[in-house]
Amino acid sequence: MATTEPAPPRAANRLVERPLWQALTVYRPLTACYALALFLAEREHFARPAVAWAFYAVLLPWTLLTLPRVRAEARCTRPFLVADLLLALTGILLTPLADGAARVASGVPTLPSIWTAGAVLAWALKGGWRPAAAASVLVGVANVVQRGTPSQSTLHNVLLVCIAAIAIGYVVEVARASERTLARALEIESATRERERLARDIHDGVLQVLAMVQRRGTALGGEAAELGRLAGEQETALRALVRGGPPPAAPRPGDSGAPLDLMTLLAPLAGARTSLAGPGTPVPLAAHAARELTAAVAAALDNVARHAGEDARAWLLVEDETDAVLVTVRDDGPGIPEGRLAEAAEQGRLGVAQSIRGRLADLGGTAALLSVPGQGTEVELRLPRPPESTNDRKDSAR
Fold first, then answer.
1. How many other CB atoms are there within 10 angstroms of residue 54's CB atom?
2. Pairing with 77, which of 101, 161, 243, 299 sits 20 to 30 Å away (CA)?
């Protein structure tokens, strides 16, 4: 399948270029008026002032009517740039005819004067430093031709325009490349976060059901064993998909709503082998945060059930601090062997990496895991409270 490069950002979104285009819209009319002022101040010395009048009769309306063209990259088309540069070159080459060869040789300004630089800079903003360099060379050649011989002042002015245009064109190219890289990085980050979220949801539901069916089917034998084998194959395929494939976009339910009591949500997780201890008062959290924290605790307890053995016990401790909520999940199982978590992540088993740590990271919290072989495992989930919630609690405590 053919791959394509990401499309460059639209001109309206190019924050670096926008001020440059705005500056060009101011520069062009000001320099056109400046060129006309120079002519009016020296018109008595012109050999053929009618030629100059004819040129300015085109330059001034052209400058005003084309201002919308130089306000953004999308409107500044190549045909317009060619016509704009041809007008500047025409004005330069008409200077000896209008002003006389003797005055031109003495170093008087050309008819378009510094307006020409605006035409070159438009090429730089549109196409980068290479078109800007080409336009500068054409302007330089036209200046040498109208002078007759290359003078120091002519070469100096041409060199300044060329350097400025190339520098601006290079900056524009770097800015566009940076914005493309940033846009691509944001797309990758968004896709990665969505894949991690979906991996957590799959791990909490589908994968665990398939694993349970596989274990039960194998234990029962007969037709159930075949069902267990198929469930095992589907679990393996789904884990591979979670590890490597970009998931489709999906809405995230429960992102809004009234605060929920964390103790109420955790209560169903307690049982004969799981003890729950916490404050005697409600522990309110934002609805989404409360549900995600509860899901992380459930994932930790599921790991206890799957890896610590059927006789293992678990203890849940909820601590409602001023600026954070702390939930500790501890078990008396055999612990986690060194390197097992990294191995599980490589195999696509993302219980700790995504269902626990990933959830807390998305909420701005942390998940710390302490496990000593033979002495059980302890998972500490810490979720900071929003600043406004912390301030409210401090006020109520007073």
1. 13
2. 161
User: Is residue 114 packed enough to be buried (19+ CB in 10 Å), middle (13-18) or exposed (0-12)?
Assistant: middle
- Considering 30-39, 197-206, 294-303, the range whose residues carry the highest mean pLDDT is 30-39
Per-residue pLDDT reduced to its tens digit, 373-392: 777 888 899 999 887 665 55
Q: Which domains does the chain have, with CATH numbers?
A: 11-181 (no CATH), 260-397 (3.30.565.10)
pLDDT tens digits, one per residue of 242-257: 555 444 333 344 444 6
Summarize the confidence of residues 309-331 as an average pLDDT: 88
CB 114 within 8 A of CB 34: yes
Question: Per the structure block, which two tokens stand in for 334?
Answer: 């055999």
Sequence-separated contacts (24+) of 27-33 with Cβ below 8 Å:
27/117, 27/118, 27/121, 28/63, 28/66, 28/67, 28/70, 28/115, 28/118, 29/63, 29/64, 29/67, 31/113, 31/114, 31/115, 31/117, 31/118, 32/59, 32/60, 32/63, 32/115
In angstroms, the CA 348 to CA 243 distance is 6
